[in-house]
# Entry
Amino acid sequence: MLVDLVQTTTRDGLQLDGIFQTPGAASSGLRVDVEVFCLFHGTGGNFYSSALFGDLAERLLGIGCAVLRVNTRGHDGISTAATARGGKRLGAAYETIDDARHDVAAWMAWLKQQGKQRIGLVGHSMGAVKAIFSLAREPQLSPVCLVALSPPRLSYLAFCAGSGAAQFLDTYSRAEQLVESGQPAALMEVQIPLPYVTTAAGYVEKYGPDERYNFLLSLPGVNCPTLVTVGSREAASNLAFQRLPEDLEALRHRQHSLHIEVIPDADHAYTGVRSQLFGRIEAWLRTAAGKST
# Structure
């Protein structure tokens, strides 16, 4: 399938890359009221390597929607971002989640420059957290809808109360000690809430007690129709998802634009159940952000 390699520059001067695809003549014409979906990867991901997004892109193109798959500044584990002042070390190890607002805004602006006005956002894992956080703090972005696939709850309080509390507190304490000893950029290999490499300062900022990136606290500030999906297997086993379906359901009663889907037998990548996931997304689009045929 032909794709266009595209690039944008954020308002703080970072160059980001992506691929843009348009539907062919053979699309089913579901006629959802969305022209294009912009897809944001999770921690350490990128626009080209996600099998989940590859399958989702094919499905969205099949119902007549264009697809833009993009990098954020947190792409890959460690990467070098191009700026007007030269290279800057970024990637999942060095990113600050708050800065993702610049990435979301830049890609939405790029789509509008292409004449696209009815834009839907899709984020997976940390990409979903970034999208929720960005829309809550910059409501002027105004997408048609948001699909948040398995956003992890980055909650100090929940982690301290969960089954992995001892391991989390040990990791957090080590990160704090490095920051306090003047080594905020020291790299740490961590295992909780997921295995990856991060700076000590980044771990403290992301998972600290101020709950800044707890997406449950940001969701009430998202004004567009929002679908959040969680896999039943990750909800049962992963610290960042424990009791999440129940807490989301409690929030849904106060936020009528929010819809929750728990996908049976689904892991974080929705392995083996993607058809079921995509079917539920399409059904929701028909009612919340689309027009039934």
